[in-house]
Amino acid sequence: MYKTLTINGTEYEFNFGFGFVKAISRVKLQDGNEIGLQYRVAQLYDGSPEALVDVLMKARVKTNAPTMEELQNWLEDESTDIDTVFDQVLDFLSTANCSKKQTLKMLQSAREEEEIQKAATAKRRKEAGLD
Question: Residue 40: which residues within 8 A CB-CB, separation 6 or more?
Answer without folding.
Answer: 24, 27, 51, 54, 55
